[in-house]
Amino acid sequence: MSATLTEPAPPQATVAAPDPTTAAAAADRKPLTRKEIIGDHPTWCPGCGDFSVLAVYFKLIEKRKLWHEKIVTVAGIGCSSRFPYFLQAHGAHFIHGRALPFATGLSLARPDLHVFAFGGDGDAFSIGGNHFTHTARKNLNLTYVVMDNQVYGLTKKQTSPTSPLGFKSKTDLWGAVDYPINPMKQAIMAGATFVARTSHTNPAHVLQMMEAALDHEGFSFIECLSECVEFYQGAFDASNPRKGGAFNLVPAEHDVTDEMAAYRLAGEPLPGHFGIFYQVKRPTKNALEAKIIKDVREKFKGLEDWQILQKTFDRMN
Amino acid sequence: MSTATVGVSEAAAAPPVEAVKEAVIRIAGNSQDGIQAIGGFLARLAGRSEQDVMTYMTIPSTISGGPSIFQVRIGSGEVHSSGDEADVLLAFYQHSYEEHIVHLKKGGIVLYDADHVEPKPDWELEYRHVGVPISGLTVEAIGGTTRDKGKNVYALGLIAKMFDLDAAKLRNLIGERFSGKDTSVAANALNAFEAGYSYSVGHLLNTFRFVDSQRRGIKQVVMNGNEALAYGLIAAGVRFGAGYPITPWTDIMELLRRELPKYGGMFVQCEDEIASIAMALGASYAGHLAVTGTSGPGLSLKTEALGWGVMAEVPLVLVNVQRGGPSTGLPTNVEQSDLNIACFGSHGDCPRVVLAPANVEDCFYTAIEAVNQARQYSVPVIILTDQAIATRIEAFEQPKLEQICQQLTPDFTPVATFKPYDLSAPNGIAHHRPPGTRILDGRYPIASGLEHDEYGHPTASAKLHTLMSAKRRKKLQALAAQLPPPKLYGPPQGKLLLVGWGSTHGPICEAVDRARAMGESVSALHLKHLHPLPNGLEQLFSAFTHTRVVEMNDEGVYGYGQLAGILRARYCNPKILGINKTDGLTFKVREIVQRVNAEVVDGMQKY
Hints:
heterodimer; A: 2 domains; eight-stranded mixed beta sheet; 33% helix; globular; B: alpha/beta; Pyruvate-ferredoxin Oxidoreductase, domain 3; 4 domains; 23 strands
């Protein structure tokens, strides 16, 4: 019986290059160093909030001993979506707004990989808004980090779907008039099973959220406030203690399985709270599809693929 | 009905039995009457009897109901098309009778439901009318009301008697069809069949018997084009697919959703067309060649992501079941008007492969070819079928599955070093190393939609863009050099060459036969590989005085259809002109012959 998508055959080993995935080989391997995972020099502007998110991603890989070949980084289009180039590992730089369905295909086809998708607020909530909703409701096993700067940076200061009312941009000379999307509310409403908020100004907290997301089985969504120093300077000062703001952690008594409580936290004005707003267990699409395959294949035990097709053709004559 | 030389039975008591080589039966009713089901039974019976068969159907694009037809052409010899004119019209309603009698041969048989159809005296002089109170007799046989199902199977019984069909095989087919349901359903269907079969049409007209098929000993399968394509993908080893429902592609995704888990694979219904190509590309990038598919509007939506597949050099199979366009167009009608978008759609220079199967059997094998080309050249491959081929049923020799079926296992073998876009690769053909592959020198590939260097990292270098554009193009040029030259139908030189692609293969070949029988010098060339085109076509064209490209699309602003435009651009040959139509229906053989006569043979003095 051949391997299936959800139960793949183990990667082949060769004499020249022993299989690195066996337990013995893994034990011998030293954790990756920062040097080994750094890719291209980021093209972001000096002071951009995205730098700290990238630094935390490196730290996560080091700390959690994620091998080059066990992770994959996916992004759409935007400043933050340049992510895959900036680290040394398998990655894909897909088209605008569609990182999540691409990541979904990856996640479903390769249960052995950790799939990370990165993007910005325009990619996630404007052009890719539909995909955000459906990836969340399908509860795909992957982590999505949105670096929200509330402005279009790559195209130089147009209104984004998360820009607050009154924000002046090149497309809203008199101040934004369209009511902004609240990413946290959107995620909770769409059925995401892990919803967290953090800020680039607190890297230790970003790492904590990334680790929790990594450990979560299902669609883990992190909104990371990430300031655009070029086009929306000071956007998140109210949440930055160094600028006189307050970085409030989610209250200890908050019940992360309480959807309404999470929704109320999501509705707070800046600075609001930071941490995990909502986390529940629900079967992932990966697991549900694997079960369908397992159950269906019970009936075809011991048959080669061509014999299964032959049985079908025998009924079509 | 072409009568064989076998002659007429001389049995005195029984009604005369006429031997026939083939027959065209047109069943006209409403879409909920189950006429596709009886058409399907007839087609499958032909398949089991080693006969050739081709069907044709129309379905209304309404949600439920509306007039619908199913035409079956069964032959003991080779059947190229579903037939221009019917020998028998089975009409369930007055509107079926009135609208479809024009498609009946003069002197043909109208078998009508006397409970619903009032025959017209004028027509009774021209056609043989056989009225049977089908609705009433069905109720008599199985109970229920005239609005319940069953009259289709009753009518099947009538046809079985009329053509002396193998009733035992038909009973088996009916039993198999309803095997999953309540036993009373199968029992009712069989009762309705028996009632129709025992009704005596013999006193009204003679009956017919097919002469034995020439295909002795060939085991056949019977299916429609969508099924053949889907099973071809499975045979080729495709184990992941993603799609969004759109007519007429939907059957393929439904089938793959149902079947793939048997093979350890899965098919995902996505939120939209763009998500489905994105998801398929994600799975392909992950190492499992994936399929997505669509019809008309969906192809427009998918073209941006298709361009990413070309740029990132990720293999993919994209099925497009063409329907009438533009926009929502004619969802349940046929057209071949997506050739240009298939070959050129997406911004930028975007070389991809386009294939078009010629018939149902070819759908199966084209799927396998598409998969192998996508993998071999690391490129998206579009399979262009159409509504007509998708829904028509044909019988063909059962594929030798043990030899044909492929296993596509991704290769994660660690490598010392790897460049995903290696410019020194022969003919520009480099292959992906999916994530999960360890690369020992620590330089990992990025699959990129930005113009990139050999590792996939972005570059604004004008030189690299030129080199990479050439690399993507050279792969297709290498593929073109590998393609087998297409075979001519008919002599290799003459007055007129008809060029076709896709589902028009059958009617074009039959038109050639008919024109040659009338003494005309006509041959045909059928192109399956549309992009890139195979090399050497110019030599074939040069042996003919005239070339006409037969296509179901508009003649365009400049006077020729989409394939004709591509051929003219490629060969600078002003002799290449078109025979086009846009009525949403398949070409009739007669239409092609008439156009050939009008424009070329009779009009030859003009040139």
